[in-house]
């Protein structure tokens, strides 16, 4: 089965040679071909170029993209879309003046979601979560990472991870799983963190690794949650079982989580709203991708990751949604890209690099996703007619997507 996209106004993020990620000033360059064609064969990108060289052989399907652009689908490398219920009541509490921290200290927050999830059947959890996966695909996401972390017991963490596995087996986009048992301390372990960490290290990690339910290991390294020493303990256990770190650090305070991530060769360190100079230094010349989550900053009214300072220091940066019921009840990567430009002063080119190729790297998918490169999965966004690529983040509230193609097939409802 072959499909020809012809008369594409601009084909975006074209990389003849696959790159792992882009950093520093290279993020300003977004390679494109104007007036282009693209051929998809058997679900993969097979050919592309200038319309002057467009193949004349007939193909099963032809899409006339006159006035429209084509770009790789978004790569959302940080989500928590497997959850039960919602936390709308905490949203109202915050409107009335309570902080995220105050709500958590009253037993709300992550522990609230954990209670709901523990009472929800695996089937119901799958049904609720698949709605969110389908929603983000319609919004242009074509590869996603999903975390556990609302189970906080052996059975419920395994339940979450089995749901992630079922999503992965049931949907055509790449899905990566992260085990986040150390997301919050269950209340009955209060004052006894090491006992909960032992449960993670001695029971959860071995079971998860044996059942091959996760590629990555995560922890919320933050004041009031887990310390740097806790983080090292968990990452060490993950390492013994082949789980690669992708960790939550520097969301509210900088306590050395970035350095712990680098020490354990984390694939990514995520959040980074509070960054000291030494944290930026620690990330230089490493393979660890910093990941910013601007929708979380927006929703919680906390600082935005200092993207300008980080990119100007030569670092790469990826953008992701953090879709979860507490800090970011939104999985819209289009909004993330706009917000990165508007609030973090990233250029459209930088933001699109961060949301495609760098996002793919941050979940180990840089060989399959994130750019228009021959052999990669044909997961594509066909835009509505737009004048320039910058118009997409600029007109931030509008839907610029005409169609989303996964493995070359349109999925629009
Ligand atoms: N910060 C830790 N975890 C999630 C939020 C969890 C929640 O509030 O449910 C995050 O990335 O923002
Ligand atoms: Zn998160």
Please characterize this protein's 3D structure.
- The two termini are 22 Å apart.
- The protein has 2 domains: 111 residues, Urease, subunit C, domain 1 (Roll); 287 residues, Alpha-Beta Barrel (TIM Barrel).
- The radius of gyration is 21 Å and the shape is globular.
- Strand 10, helix 8 and strand 11 form a beta-alpha-beta unit.
- The chain has 413 residues and is of the alpha/beta class.
- It has 15 helices and 16 strands.
- The relative contact order is 0.17.
- Helix 4 crosses helix 5, helix 5 runs parallel beside helix 6 and helix 6 runs parallel beside helix 7.
- The site of N-(iminomethyl)-L-glutamic acid (NIG) has 12 residues, from helix 3.
Coarse shape: globular
- What is the CATH class of the largest domain? Alpha Beta
The helix fraction, in percent, is 25-40%
Radius of gyration: 21 Å
Q: Main sheet? A: 8 strands, mixed
Strand content: 15-25%
Helix count from the secondary structure assignment: 15
Q: Return residue spans where pLDDT drops below 50 for at least 5 consecutive residues.
A: none
Please tell me the total number of domains.
2
> What is the annotated CATH architecture of the largest domain?
Alpha-Beta Barrel
CATH topology (fold) name of the largest domain = TIM Barrel
- Give the names of the bound compounds: N-(iminomethyl)-L-glutamic acid, zinc ion
Could you give the count of β-strands? 16
Terminal Cα span: 22 Å
Class from helix and strand fractions: alpha/beta
CATH H level, superfamily name of the largest domain? Metal-dependent hydrolases
